[in-house]
Amino acid sequence: MTETIQAHAFRPRDLVGGHVVIDLLNTVTARNADPVDRLDGYPRLLEWAALTEHFDPDALVALERLAEADPAGAARALDRTRELREDLHDLVTALVRQDDPAPAEAVRRVERRWKHAAAGAHLTVRENTAELQIDVATSGLDYLGHRLVLEAFDLLRSLPPERTRVCPGVRCGWVFIDSSRGGRRRWCDMATCGNSAKGRTHYQRKRQSTALVKPE
Ligand SMILES: [Zn+2]
């Protein structure tokens, strides 16, 4: 991966994808310019995971301890998560563009990671719901990667291409699922990309209208 890695304190507004796996894709920003990877270390991945409120807090504490005891192992697990993220980004955007066939290398690598994750998972059926459960004891530092690749498989099967968009904002390129009623959401976030676009249009209009006023 060639993009710049930059420290970033994750905030709730970084989670606008509509699915935890899509939020993972958006830990790289400015994909439509010079991509910036905001996962600058395993602790950052844990910080992001905690913010999503999608993972068991006890598991995150256990991972923090594992990472402290084995920083090199944590760095390798982060690299695997980053690679997974990029492959999933290729697959999700291929589905949105309805590219057929999808990028074969990414398909093959995601399949391999899915098999690896599934090999350590337990099938549980509770309250009429079947799940492949992953735990830190089996998956170790790859717990988050394993959870995410299993959920990615569900996402890829059910992704609504007509409702999945790539934000056209300046230095953005975030992916999001539009679950608004009208289905006309264009920006990842109206408060950021939407507003700056509105600001630019306003500025351009103002300039144009000023230009139209002929000097007396
Ligand atoms: Zn955006």
Structure description:
There is one protein chain. With 216 residues, the protein is mostly helical. The chain has a single domain, classed as Jann2411-like domain (Jann2411-like fold), CATH 1.10.3300.10. It has helices at residues 20-25, 42-52, 57-69, 71-97, 104-119, 136-139, 143-158, 190-212; strands spanning 4-5, 28-29, 36-37, 122-126, 129-133, 164-166, 175-177. Strands 1-3-2 form a 3-stranded mixed beta sheet, with no helix packed on it. Strands 4-5 form a two-stranded antiparallel sheet. A two-stranded antiparallel ribbon has the order 6-7. A hairpin with a 2-residue loop joins strand 4 (122-126) and strand 5. Helix 3 packs across helix 4 (71-97) and helix 4 (71-97) crosses helix 5. The N and C termini lie far apart (58 Å). The chain binds zinc ion. Residues 167, 169, 172, 174, 187-188, 193 line the site of zinc ion.
Fold blueprint:
Layout: E1 4-5, H1 20-25, E2 28-29, E3 36-37, H2 42-52, H3 57-69, H4 71-97, H5 104-119, E4 122-126, E5 129-133, H6 136-139, H7 143-158, E6 164-166, E7 175-177, H8 190-212
Parallel strand pairs: 1-3
Antiparallel strand pairs: 2-3, 4-5, 6-7
Helix pairs in contact: 2-3, 3-4, 4-5, 4-7, 5-7
This protein binds zinc ion (ZN).
